[in-house]
Amino acid sequence: MTRSSDALDRWRDLYRQFTILGDPARACPKPTADDLDRFEAETGVKLPLSYRTYTQVFGAGAFDLDAVFLRVSVPYCPAAVLDLKESFEINDSWKTNPDISDRAKRLVYVANSFSGDLFGWDPEDETGAPEFGVYCAIRHGDVVKLADDFYGFIALCLDRSAFRERVQILDEDDDDEDEDDEDDIAPRSKRDRGPRREFLPAAIPSG
């Protein structure tokens, strides 16, 4: 089992590889271990260790990566759009939809892409206490497993080709990644070919 201190160190090492955007003075506070314990008690949702430690290092915000533009929610974020409780509304709205798979209904959604894909862990897919498999509910209806824990999920998002292959963004006959295409997994019409690792922390709402 990974210790909390080891998991925190791993996230801190990754955090140092990012360019942090925005005004630090306006960044939303990151949840503490006590906050996360309180959230679990209030909601009955078990937070996997890799996600708990992520929230304490990165907090809520948006990643601009080569693979995907990704927004991640955390508990008690003052910016309501990135407050984890808001994602529970997705689960509630899908529970009565007969076209949604059982797995998609039970995922705990914590992230979404610019193009509308949703990401979360399956509390029934225990990959090693206290961890759960992370899945993508792709906008065209499929649900695919991406990683065994939240750190593995973020690591996958850092690898554009691996991410695209896993979530099947490309058409089967599109094997020329050197050509500029209509890439809707990030808010840019043409992608740079060098690595991009930027993170914009959620800002405290004004007023």
What topology emerges from the helices and strands here?
Blueprint: H1 4-15, E1 19-20, H2 33-43, H3 49-57, E2 61-65, E3 69-72, H4 84-94, H5 102-106, E4 108-113, E5 118-128, E6 131-137, E7 143-147, H6 150-157, H7 160-167, E8 197-201
Parallel strand pairs: 1-8
Antiparallel strand pairs: 2-3, 2-8, 3-4, 4-5, 5-6, 6-7
Structure characterization notes:
- The chain has 207 residues and is α+β, with helices and mostly antiparallel strands.
- The protein has a single domain (4-170, 188-201), classed as SMI1/KNR4-like.
- The chain contains 7 helices and 8 strands, in the order αβααββααββββααβ.
- It has helices at 4-15, 33-43, 49-57, 84-94, 102-106, 150-157, 160-167, and strands spanning 19-20, 61-65, 69-72, 108-113, 118-128, 131-137, 143-147, 197-201.
- Strands 1-8-2-3-4-5-6-7 form an 8-stranded mixed β-sheet.
- A hairpin with a 4-residue loop joins strand 4 (108-113) and strand 5 (118-128).
- Helix 1 packs across helix 3.
- The longest helix has 12 residues, at 4-15.
- It starts with a helix and ends in a 6-residue tail after the last strand.
Q: In percent, how helical is the residue content?
A: 25-40%
Tally of helical runs? 7
Number of domains: 1
Beta content comes to: 15-25%
Specify Rg, calculated over alpha carbons.
17 Å
- Judged by helices, strands and strand pairing, the structural class is alpha+beta
Shape: globular
The end-to-end distance, rounded to whole angstroms, is 44 Å
Question: CATH homologous superfamily - what is it?
Answer: SMI1/KNR4-like
Largest sheet: 8 strands, mixed
CATH fold name, please?
SMI1/KNR4-like
Strand and helix order: HEHHEEHHEEEEHHE
CATH class: Alpha Beta
| Mean residue pLDDT | 84
